[in-house]
Amino acid sequence: MHDAAGTLGIGMRVAVHGAQRRVEMLRSLLFIPGDSERKLARALTTDADAIILDLEDAVAPKRKAEARRQVADLLLHRKEGRAQQVWVRINALDTDAAALDLAAVAHAGPDGIMLPKARSAAQVVALAGRLDELEAAAGHEKGPESGQIGIIALVTETADAVFRLGSYAPELPRLRALTWGAEDLSVCIGATRTRDERGRWLSVFEHVQSLALLAAAAAGVPALETIYSQFNDDDGLRQIATRARQQGFAGMLAIHPSQVPIINDVFTPSAEEIAYARRVVQAFAAAGDAGVIALDGRMLDEPHLQQARRLLD
Question: Of 19, 21, 139, 152, most Cβ neighbours within 10 A?
């Protein structure tokens, strides 16, 4: 049972204007191949907080031009005021394909760009600069947070990128979140699998997952859990999503529409969690200047108060 009127997740607010509802923080982000007209149309009917129109791995090289056309067309003709955000995953920034991707879609006003194979914060800065130029050329005024089009960086797909996770710092232009990936990294290091028989990450990938989470915290942006490729394993997805949320991830990537309801449910705080957080805040307020209080047989101090306020923010 979840609280439907107000906060939907850690650090996530919902703005309601008449019949419109805009999710500012993202629980679920669904990948859609950019060259599939059928899947693109279906994506707009899902409950994903955001869809990511993929111009990279999900599209064969010979189909990329067609994918750019279809993605730009969807962006230009989507309905105004939709709560669902629409992002585009471009190709790696140091490829010719990335320049073609940006030229094709930036003028159509996506909510953001997912930057794959990001090697360091320098590439986020470089992409932000390109978006500045493209928005200016299209006559778009800059919006809040250093631009209208945001950036989610995919930061662990190469071995060298892992060693540069400390480069992501607060107030990077346009940066909205960090996420990570295991599939490309597994190819890079020669791994034959990423999870063990119980579905848990093998140690090297668990380590990288932790570093990505810490990098997002250091940068002051949410961390998004990577995909779970077994799209027909609902129990496994729920377990993995639950563990990710417990660790501090704010949302999760999805590869199939059937995964979206589970991800949304896991990353939406329950009514019980919200009620307890309110009690913590109220108890500290009633205690005045006390740095430590007792509640339900537990001793709570400043970190517990901050955690409760974050849940209610």
Answer: 152
Rounded CA-CA distance 266/277 in Å is: 17
In sequence order, the 6+-apart residues with CB closer than 8 A to the CB of 134 are: 102, 103, 106, 107
CATH topology of domain 14-268: TIM Barrel (3.20.20)
Domain spans of the chain, in order of start:
14-268, 274-312
pLDDT in tens, 94-120: 999 999 999 999 999 999 999 999 999
Q: How far is CA 238 from CA 2, 107, 243, 256, 291, in A?
A: 16, 38, 8, 14, 37
Residue 282 has pLDDT above 80, yes or no: no
203, burial (CB in 10 Å: exposed 0-12, middle 13-18, buried 19+): exposed
| Contacts of residue 148, Cβ cutoff 8 Å, sequence gap at least 6 | 109, 135, 140, 141, 142
Question: How many CB atoms are closer than 10 A to CB 275?
Answer: 11
Q: What is the 3-state secondary structure (H, E, C) of the chain?
A: CECCCCCCECCECEEEECCEEEECCCCEEEEEECCCHHHHHHHCCCCCCEEEEECCCCCCHHHHHHHHHHHHHHHHHCCCCCCCEEEEECCCCCCHHHHHHHHHHHHHCCCEEEECCCCCHHHHHHHHHHHHHHHHHCCCCCCCCCCCCEEEEECCCCHHHHCCHHHCCCCCCCEEEEECCCHHHHHHHCCCCCECCCCCECHHHHHHHHHHHHHHHHHCCCEEECCCCCCCCHHHHHHHHHHHHHHCCCEEEECCHHHHHHHHHHCCCEHHHHHHHHHHHHHHHHCCCCCCEEECCEEECHHHHHHHHHHHC
pTM of the model: 0.84
pLDDT mean over 247-251: 96
Contacts of 115 (CB under 8 A, 6+ apart): 90, 93, 123, 124, 127, 151, 152, 153, 154
